[in-house]
Design a protein that fits this description.
The chain is mostly helical and 324 residues long. 58% of the residues lie in helices and 0% in strands. Helix 3 packs across helix 5. The longest helix has 33 residues, at 72-104.
């Protein structure tokens, strides 16, 4: 039986329904107050006061020429909007943990044969997305006393959490936060920090992560973690008189380069996961189950693998022909 649902934020009004609501109820539905209690008990998360869309002000424009400080009403608008965004960021932990519970306890079994069928039918969530959220929530929960992270940041910390342990992952995030200072922490920062860690077997204690990252930042092996005033400034060759100056600065190029390295590291990790996932027997089983769809998926996998190989050869100037 289909139970497709829309992901809407619940109201923040009083948990006590009024008389009209009680009369309108069917007697079989769980009230919002009851559902909040269940979610809080299962996940340990306080979801009793999320911001609903009606609580946000109607969007309005302010001219860019306006430079005056915010008035009281604007500060109130900023506060409620940031509260909504804070709740959105917290959803990484709450939704991931909820999915983990449903999957491991097989709470879908009354209505669906598999977790994947449940995801598709009830929530319209792809399997890959659901498992990313499931993997992310323990990491996000572990570092939450230090700071809230989004799914992308959790994804960069997850290999550290898995290979080095929770304490090492927390130590890495704490040290990156300290090294970045007032600067925003991004997934690229965490990817760079992870890249300079020694193999797990060479890390005797989690607290050594701090020394490793501090040394890497000081030696220039982790430029994103270096103090802002100490970040290297590339030497730009002097331009001949009258020669056009290139757009953008060297610092911007450095930042772009670090982001690019982090992007390639993430892509490599994903390709490894794909390689491991599409192991012996997967194609044969897929073709047996649904020949048309299995063949189409094989074609798409080969197409994007070939395109990636071509792009890498083209970028490096490699003139080899053929997609292999």
């Amino acid at each position: 039986m289909s139970r497709r649902r829309s992901l809407v934020m619940p109201s923040t009004r009083s948990a006590e329904p009024d008389d009209e609501e009680q009369e309108a109820g069917t007697g079989t539905e769980v009230s919002f107050a009851q559902s909040v209690g269940v979610v809080a008990t299962l996940t340990g998360a306080d979801v009793s006061t999320p911001v609903s869309v009606v609580q946000l002000p109607t969007p309005y424009d302010v001219a860019e020429t306006v430079t005056s400080p915010l008035d009281d009403q604007e500060r109130a608008h900023l506060a409620v909007c940031e509260q909504a965004l804070y709740g959105f960021r917290k959803s990484v932990i709450v939704a991931g943990k909820a999915l983990d519970i449903i999957n491991r306890a097989r709470l879908y079994r009354e209505t669906h044969a598999t977790f994947v069928e449940y995801l598709d039918d009830v929530w319209e969530i792809r399997k890959s997305q659901a498992y990313r959220m499931i993997e992310a929530w323990p990491v996000a929960a572990a570092v939450s006393p230090i700071g809230d992270i989004n799914e992308g940041q959790a994804r960069e910390l997850q290999p550290v959490f898995k290979d080095y342990g929770q304490e090492a992952a927390v130590a890495l995030y704490r040290e990156v936060k300290e090294l970045r200072g007032d600067r925003k922490i991004t997934a690229a920062d965490l990817a760079e920090a992870r890249a300079v860690l020694p193999p797990a077997r060479q890390l005797a204690r989690p607290d050594q992560v701090r020394d490793v990252l501090a040394a890497a930042a000081a030696e220039g092996r982790a430029p994103r973690l270096a103090p802002a005033e100490a970040q290297p400034r590339p030497q730009v060759p002097a331009q001949a008189s009258g020669e056009a100056q290139p757009e953008g600065g060297g610092v911007h190029q450095l930042d772009e380069g670090a982001e690019a390295i982090a992007t390639m590291e993430r892509a490599l990790a994903q390709q490894r996961q794909i390689y491991d996932a599409v192991g012996d027997g997967v194609l044969a089983a897929a073709l047996l189950y649904d020949p048309g769809r299995g063949e189409r998926l094989r074609h798409e996998l080969r197409k994007y693998a070939n395109r990636t190989a071509y792009r890498m050869r083209h970028a490096s100037g490699d003139q080899d022909q053929g997609d292999g």
